[in-house]
Amino acid sequence: MLTLLGYLLIIVFLVLVIKNKLSPFAGLIVVSLIAALLACMLNGIPIQKIAIWIRDGLFYTTSASGKVKLGTINPTIMILFAILYFSLMMNVGLFDPLCKHLIKKAKGDPLKIIMVTAFTASVVTLDGDGTTTILIITAVFVPLFKQMKLKLSNLAILIILPCELGNCLPWGGPLVRAAAVLNLEVNTLFVAILPILGCSFIYVFFMAYIMGKKERVRLGYTGEQDNEVSQNQLKIMLDIIDNNDKDLKRPKFFIFNAILTIIMLIILIMDWVSGAFVFLTGTAIALAVNYNCKEQRERITANGGEAISVTSIIIAAGVFLGILNGSGMAEAIAKHMASMIPPSLGSHTAFIFAFIGAIACYALPVDAYYFGILPVVAPISYEFGITPNEIGMAAFMGQALRYASPTVAWLFLLIDRTEMSFGEYQKEFFKWALPMFAIFVIVAVITGQLPI
């Protein structure tokens, strides 16, 4: 009975979210509570147990051996303050000087312009917010691309692939969702994927180089003065960067903000303390140094919207996972599905899921993928000796193809800004994204993070 109820819980949640009948937040909680009530009534379990299951999913559980397993509150705190921190760094203009310097150096060389576009998009997307990246980069570069007769389809890809990688940072969303489901520290998964992100960013700049060389040939670039960007166009581009949140810029604190950010990233990568503590304290320090009391409240309010939309889902996932695990539904599903997998394939579960999961990641909303599919696959993998880290890595592979999905709402903003049809975008996206998916898988296998 628990097996059937567990399947129903996941299927109903997926259907309601995919058909937009319920938001992921409401679906995770409402559907879980109904399933929990049915589990209690059908198995003679006291209803009061539901509160204990939810508490365990949100906070922590202690095994008989004394081992503590954290709930979703820890990653929730981390992503909340990580989003706030990087939003603040965008507000104060930490990355403005470097972006402006590179734009000036690019002048009229198609190759340089495209390389600078890739770099600027990679910097702006560090806050993990795709919408912001699209708005800023298209505002700066669409007029330039049009003036220089560069392909806007190239601009779309130069924005979206860095966005994919920026979204894979701990504060981007997918990583913290996977960590919440697998009961892992976000830092643990982040350190594991760093080689993949590093190789993928190298690929992005290699891709930009290829695009730039082709544009040089197509446009007959000779390096003469008439190919250069006009001073007026250059001023417009720089003004867009200067005027974005102009009243919030804090150039006099540039060195302090840069050193603070570098120290925080080193601590995070070295895994010296919890990422939640790093961004909690870093956000407080950045606010105190850059803004007065009134401005601090305004920044928290203004930047908190995106943070709340993500963190509320992670909290709701704690309810979902607490009920799924505490009621015994997760264990029942795992045993049933594991019994159907031939032993010869069991050890390859993670590698197989890397490919099947990529299709699911493309086809499903991100919350349906991480909270509907991963909780089922993970326990099955454990039955064959796959670790939470390894199945988390397998679940991460699909992010390379995620941003071709029509379930990504702001994708249509990018398509509109770069004057493409959805079909044209898909064709161009997969041409460059499929090699990046291959890089994800190959690097994960080579580094031993994805067992084959």
Q: Overview of this structure, please?
A:
- The chain has 452 residues and is an all-alpha fold.
- The chain has a domain at 74-307.
- It contains 21 helices and 2 strands.
- It has helices at residues 2-18, 24-43, 49-58, 73-92, 96-106, 110-124, 130-147, 152-166, 174-182, 186-219, 231-243, 254-270, 275-290, 293-326, 329-338, 343-346, 349-363, 366-383, 388-396, 411-417, 422-446, and strands spanning 60-62, 68-70.
- A two-stranded antiparallel sheet has the order 1-2.
- Strand 1 (60-62) and strand 2 (68-70) form a beta hairpin.
- Helix 4 runs parallel beside helix 13 (275-290).
- The longest helix is centred in the middle third of the chain and has 34 residues, at 186-219.
- The two termini are 34 Å apart.
- 46% of the residues are buried.
- The mean pLDDT is 82.
Give a short summary of the structure.
With 452 residues, the protein is mainly alpha-helical. The chain has a domain at 74-307. Helices cover 75% and strands 1% of the residues.
Shape: globular
Q: How many H/I helices?
A: 21
Strand residues, percent: under 5%
Number of strand elements: 2
Q: Structural class, judged by helices and strands?
A: mainly alpha
- Give the helix level as a range of percent: over 70%
Question: What is the rounded Rg?
Answer: 23 Å
Kindly report how far apart the N and C termini lie: 34 Å
Q: What's the arrangement of strands in the largest beta sheet? A: 1-2
**Mean pLDDT over the full residue set:** 82
H/E topology pattern: HHHEEHHHHHHHHHHHHHHHHHH
The largest β sheet comes out as: 2 strands, antiparallel
Low-pLDDT segments: none
